[in-house]
Amino acid sequence: MSTFYEEDELDDEVNLTSGVLARLLDLLKPYWLTVLLGILSIAVVSWLDAYFTVLNKRIIDEGIVARDMNAMVRLFWNYGMITMGQVVAFFVMMLSVGIQGERIRYDLRKKLFNHLQKLSLSYFSKTPIGWIMSRVTSDTEKMGDLLTWGIIDSMWALTNISFAIYFMLQLNTQLALIVILSLPLMVVVSFKFRVKIYYHYRKSRKANSKMTASLNENITGVRIVKALRREDQNLKDFKVLSTDMFRESYRAGLLSAIYLPTIQTISAISLVLILWRGGNMVGNSLLSVGTLQAFISYIMFILWPIQDLARVYAEMQNAIASSERVFSLLESQPGVRNRKNLLPVNSLVGDVEFENVSFHYEDDEPVIQNLSFHIPQGQKVALVGTTGGGKTTIVNLLCRFYEPTSGTIRIAGNDYLNYSLEDIQSRIGVVLQIPHLFSGTIRDNLRYGRLDATDEEIERAAQMAGAHDFIVKFEKGYDSDVGEGGNQLSVGQKQLISIARALLSNPDIFVMDEATSSVDTLTEALIQKGMQQLMTGRTSFIIAHRLSTIKSSDQIFVIEDGQIVESGSHKSLIQQRGVYYNLYTKQFRQDLEIKLDPFAEAGAEVNPA
Amino acid sequence: MLFVVFAENDREEEMSFTEKSYKPIDINKVISGKKTSSLWHLMSGFHLHYLVANLFTGLAALARTFIYLYLGGFVDRILEQGVVGTDLIVSALSFGGLITLQALSSFMSSWMATFTAENSTRRLRDYLFDHIQRLPYSYHSEAKTGDLLERATSDVDTIRRFFADQAIGIGRIVMIFIISFVAISQISLRLALISIIIIPIILVVSMFFFKALSKAYEAYQEQGAKISTDLQENLSGVRVVKAFARQDYEIEKFDKDNKEKFRLGKKFIRMHSLFWPLTDIVCSAQTIASSFIGATMVFDNIMTLGQYLSFVGLLGWLIWPIRNLGRLIIATSQTFVSLGRISTILKADEEDMTSATYQPEGNIQGQVKFDDVCFAYEKDQVVLEDVSFSCEAGEVVALLGSTGSGKTSLVNLLPRFYDVTCGQILLDGVNINEYSRQFLRSQIGIVEQEPFLFSTSIRGNITYGVHREVSEEEIVMAAKEAAIHDVILDFKNGYDTMVGERGVTLSGGQKQRLAIARTLLINPRILIMDDSTSSVDMETEVQIRAALEKLMMNRTTFIIAHRIQSIMNADQILVFDQGKIVQKGMHAELVNQPGIYQDIYEIQARIDSALQEEIERVDLL
Questions:
Q1: 0.80 cut: is pTM over it?
Q2: In this predicted complex, what is the ipTM?
Q3: Do A114 and B412 make contact, defined as CB atoms within 8 angstroms?
Q4: Among A218, A401, A451, whose Cβ lies nearest the Cβ of B242?
Q5: Which residues of chain A does B71 touch, with a Cβ-Cβ cutoff of 8 Å?
Q6: Confidence band, pLDDT 50/70/90 cuts, at residue A345
Q7: Distance from B123 to chain A by nearest Cα, in Å?
């Protein structure tokens, strides 16, 4: 899933003027000492890389050709010492830069995660999870790479080329010029190749994720595939995708195969020139054999720093696009924020009041319009009505996951914008329709309600919610693992745990979106009991689907098209014979049908397993 | 330049690429025999290319060796004879020629290796895709999707890398080593032998290192996966996090795993920072020592200066590549693991779609007879027992019973997703095992309760599996009959709306109506359908009823029923309990018979009176 979003941005235009580079370098600021150390070490390494050639030349000229054993021993000794020095520098560079890279990745992930915690629900309803995941996982990797190895590799390449040019000019200007003149061509060809190779490589990654998605779908939907005898057509469709993959991957491979030999051939031209000119000079004793050998080494080696530079350049485009996305995420502002001059609160016990509240997610698409009501402290309110009518939005506004676009919501006498988000949200207990548990033990999940709860308090809450009995039946009791997203537990069990969790948090206001899916009668009774516990003495808002919940509430709001179309007690609404009456009788029938059905089952068995 | 070759004409190329047929793999040869022979057979059709790749690898190594030998000879000649003029030009040009030859050979070798690798894996991918979809349904109901997917993608890629990099890479390093060694030993055997003293050490150390490294990397990757899970849970549970104002707690939790990844990353880096410099020291020591000995040999006139230069050049190629050999060997062992994992899939038998001993002219009538049928997924786990009934073409058979009573298993036998364990099923009087599965399935339509939709357009989903060209009018007509047309038009892009696109959510009932539209187009003789229980408003329900009635008309229909209203008109009702038919007959008969059916039926009347009572009670309050 994440790969899809990662590869979706293949044709990003990178705008280098947008200050991304400056912001990227900003990330290095805290580690400037390490960066400096790394750059210095790599400069030493690359200088010595270039210097070895000079040393080899001196071994030949001053030692072997001059027949000076002492000089030779000394030079070899130097060679060994310098090697040691280079190894040390290399070690320092690798360790410091490598660890710094890991730290930058760590920092970025942390920054992103922390920022995500601040963003409001509106951001998450607009942004696919997969997109966000890609930012935190793969983009941070690319940024870390660019800021460490990208910098180090290009520094190495640049300094190495510079030192080589410097030493060559020292040795012989004429020959040096031959090499220098060939450089631009090698650089241009390298860059073009590298960019092209990387382009095809990324396209192949994109093709690959499409191919995987297709395979995944075919396996998941295999029953339909078989029933409809779609195999032949599916293979044909898949072959188009696998051919895309083949083509891109093959092109990247072929270009890579052409690339180095091309550069080598270009360097062969200058080599021929050097041998011809240099050979002449050696023949006429104008040049030492060692120098000629040095030039040969330089020209044969110089393609490596060039190709490194080209590679960094090609990958940099992409890493910068990644950075832009990461920075844009970090810049996005939460839609719901704390105001200034907040009122301190110890409790939200008091009346809840909506005054002319309107709300829309998108302009010109009002979800709630001029909604007003007043709920005295401690009352239970049931919200009923068809899906999409605005029940969930009302609850979201109350919890301040969103804020009204106009109008005022008052809790305990004050506009709730005057309270801090933390105060509101920690004092409103919420049980969602689809209970969400985190992986970990049952105890961990319960403690989510109140982090400093003791084990006894946790168990008491579970008992009150009616969850205790099934929990202790597990082999590990409260320490049983709930699995990813709680998938080891049944829906009913998850609901009981989320009720216990809310009980533990001891909220002033209770909000619940009742589940629609049916659970077995026993669990259902337990859930009802748990809810009663939660509602006792608390102002409660229930998006209700169960008749018993609806009937036992103090007020019922029938919500349609963002308006309260009917309100009152169960009795008065029944007597009205209006919308509520129809909803009620239909629900009554359905409930009984399920209850009395001897074959009661939640859904059809599609898979025999 | 060279890359102009690929510039345009994507379309044209695409055609030639897809239509270019490749030799099919002989899968029996791949799955039998040793793993090395499996790899060899996976390459079949490209053996020649691969051979060429290896030949050119050798040629490149040879050319490179000659570059150094030639360089030495060149220097010696200049020094001795003072080569000048045309002689020099010829020498210089031949030198350039050798480099070009080496470059060309490397190109040929990489090209052929890429060609082999990409073609072989593409063929393997296609084969696996097809093989997986043709494995029997029983295989799929037991296999894990993620696992199958992993094998068909990343394991296949491991094999691709083996063909493209490791196999050629190992050959390259070994050949370079041998050729360099032979060349040096031509100069001095003693020197050659001295120069390879550390080779075994480096090889062993590098193998240990890369093995440890791949472990460390795996741990690092796993921690990465853990972080992704953390993040995913946090994001999908964002309302819970906010509802309990647990942001700080979440931040702390994430930081713990994030830090652990940091720690593992550092460990990984430390391993690298130890291995490379340490082996650098060893390899450098060998290089310096050998060079020094070589230099003293020049002093003692055992060797010329030119020979020394050749030797020093070749020495580098003798020593340094060995460090990478360890990496390649370890990667190869991973290839064998991947190959094993793929083989287990390949070894499973595909479903026989075509063989038949009976092939009727045209379509079947649709008369079905179950004759003492029993069925078990596993031995001793009987799912259906002594099931016998028969129905005429066009009749409606309703199956009633609780979950696990055998209804779904029974309908799975008709298209031969599974075969009966004993007894027989007759279709138009002929045992269904005599028909080919292909034909059988062409006669049967299935409408599931909540059908799986494919990520294509809504139109694509309606025509999915309709094995003929369908006109736009036909599609719209079918959609209208299935009472889904208006829903589709409500989407911004109508019939072109992509399923799974953001903002496009179809309810279970809507998905089912799409499947009804599809089945109307397919027009099968036998229909298997799951009766929907999902709640819809009255108007839609009426529409759906009408759609279903249209769908069932003139077809033998098996309904897996959840509600009694939908089966009152069935020609035959089968009540299942624990794999057996406990009641059989029409509504009118069963309703007067004491039993489960009567119980259910009476429920409706009880509901009515209960509701009446309830309302009266409230009114009187």
A1: yes
A2: 0.85
A3: no
A4: A401
A5: 296
A6: confident
A7: 9
